[in-house]
Specification:
about 0% strand; little secondary structure; about 240 residues; 3 helices; single chain
């Protein structure tokens, strides 16, 4: 694969190639990058590309608006610290034990990816999609999940204290017995979410949709529910 050969030259060579070829969509589907050192790599899309294309003169070569395609790629144990992953597509990728600390994964697609024991500490995950992703043991410490799509994910019993889920979709998510102290769910969708036994002390649900959500045995001391949509008997506060 042409793009894989460039990547094998190292992160520096890859990033230089990306800078020189902003109109090319990187395709790395099903590549084996297990335990690869990819710190600081640019696999993402230029977030200004769409606007720049709109303003460019007729006949100008368009910039690529998509991040790299890594469908089914093996990134188990790979180090993606501080990587640019804006719009990168990790559909069905193996990211077990991967380090994605400090990465900008705005709008990245992790549908059906396996992120077991991966580190997303300090990652920017605004608008990222995690449909049917395996998130067991993921370290989300200080990650920003604003407007992320976490519909139906299983985060049972994990430590998500203080995280920002503002405007996120958590419909049907399993958050039972999860530590969500001080988490921000303002304007989030939690329809039919399972929050049974969750630690919700000082969590913010202002403007959130909690219709059908289960909060039995949840600890809600100091939690805010102003303007939240909720079942009449669904929340003790």
């Amino acid at each position: 694969m042409e793009h894989l050969m460039i990547l094998k030259q190292g992160v520096g060579a890859w990033n230089a190639w990306r800078d020189e070829n902003p109109g090319i969509e990187p395709k790395l589907n099903e590549v084996n990058l297990q335990n690869a050192d990819l710190r600081g790599i640019n696999l993402g899309a230029d977030p200004t590309a769409a606007e720049r294309n709109r303003r460019s003169s007729r006949g100008a070569k368009p910039l690529c608006t998509l991040g790299a395609a890594l469908y089914g790629a093996n990134l188990r144990g790979a180090d993606l610290t501080d990587a640019s992953l804006v719009g990168t597509r990790f559909f069905q990728a193996d990211l077990r034990n991967a380090t994605i600390t400090g990465a900008d994964a705005t709008g990245a697609n992790f549908d059906e990816a396996n992120l077991t024991n991966a580190s997303l500490r300090d990652a920017k995950l605004t608008g990222a999609v995690f449909g049917e992703a395996v998130l067991r043991g993921v370290d989300f410490t200080n990650a920003n999940l604003t407007e992320a799509n976490l519909m139906g994910v299983n985060l049972h019993g994990q430590n998500l204290a203080g995280l920002v889920f503002r405007g996120a979709c958590l419909m049907d998510a399993n958050l039972a017995e999860t530590d969500l102290k001080g988490a921000d769910f303002s304007d989030a969708c939690l329809i039919d979410a399972n929050l049974r036994g969750a630690e919700l002390t000082n969590a913010n649900f202002t403007g959130a949709n909690l219709l059908g959500a289960t909060l039995e045995d949840a600890k809600t001391d100091g939690a805010k529910f102003e303007d939240a949509q909720r079942d009449k008997t669904g929340i003790a506060c």
